């Protein structure tokens, strides 16, 4: 089973790298990745973003400042702790992220269009299976967190 997980992660990473490399992105890939991370996490503290990206808090602070300078993210006081701030996407940031996702999908489209109907059907099924896998993983993490409280 572990080999299945390793193979899955390897293929997904290769697809992501390939699509990013071949996409015509208007922003650096690192900024696109951070916008996507904030979109996934929702409003988050810089420390949480740093942990999710496996970088230091000062490094994340610099990355967030770059996004903030473009108007793609905002800082708001954390209602649970007035000393902390939460980083969230602005409508402009959400639009930039949508453009990045469209560009990456467009890079894959010529490859997908050369696939047979059967292969495209299998690909759609695989995407649905991966979505279900992620939903189950997110629920497991949530269930574990609730159990620990």
- How helix-rich are the residues, as a percent range? over 70%
CATH architecture of the largest domain: Orthogonal Bundle
- Give the class from helix and strand content and strand pairing: mainly alpha
Per the principal axes of the C-alpha atoms, what is the gross shape? globular
**Looking at CATH, which topology of the largest domain would you report?**
Arc Repressor Mutant, subunit A
**Separation of the first and last Cα atoms:** 31 Å
Run of helices and strands: HHHHEEHH
Strand residue percentage: 5-15%
- The total tally of domains equals 2
Strand order within the widest beta sheet: 1-2
Number of helices: 6
> Could you give a short account of the major beta sheet?
2 strands, antiparallel
Oligomeric status: single chain
Radius of gyration over C-alpha positions, nearest whole angstrom = 18 Å
Task: Let me know the average pLDDT.
Answer: 91
Uncertain segments: none
CATH class of the largest domain: Mainly Alpha
DSSP, total strands: 2
Name the CATH homologous superfamily of the largest domain.
Winged helix-like DNA-binding domain superfamily/Winged helix DNA-binding domain
Task: Describe what you observe in this structure.
α3 packs across α4 (57-69). A two-stranded antiparallel sheet has the order 1-2. The mean pLDDT is 91. The protein is 73% helix and 10% strand. By secondary structure, the chain is mainly alpha-helical. The longest helix is centred in the last third of the chain and has 31 residues, at 117-147.
Key traits:
149 residues, mainly alpha, Arc Repressor Mutant, subunit A, 6 helices, globular
């Amino acid at each position: 089973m572990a080999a299945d997980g390793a193979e899955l992660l390897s293929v997904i990473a290769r697809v992501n790298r390939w699509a990013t490399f071949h996409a015509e992105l208007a922003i650096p890939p690192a900024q696109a990745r951070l916008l996507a991370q904030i979109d996934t996490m929702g409003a988050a503290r810089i420390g949480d973003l740093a942990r999710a990206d496996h970088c230091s808090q000062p490094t994340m602070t610099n990355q967030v400042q770059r996004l903030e300078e473009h108007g793609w993210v905002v800082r708001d006081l954390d209602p649970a702790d007035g000393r902390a701030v939460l980083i969230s996407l602005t409508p402009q940031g959400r639009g930039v992220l949508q453009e990045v996702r469209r560009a990456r999908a467009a890079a894959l489209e010529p490859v997908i269009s050369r696939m047979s109907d059967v292969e495209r059907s299998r690909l759609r099924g695989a995407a649905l299976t991966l979505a279900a896998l992620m939903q189950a993983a997110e629920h497991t993490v949530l269930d574990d967190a609730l159990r620990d409280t």
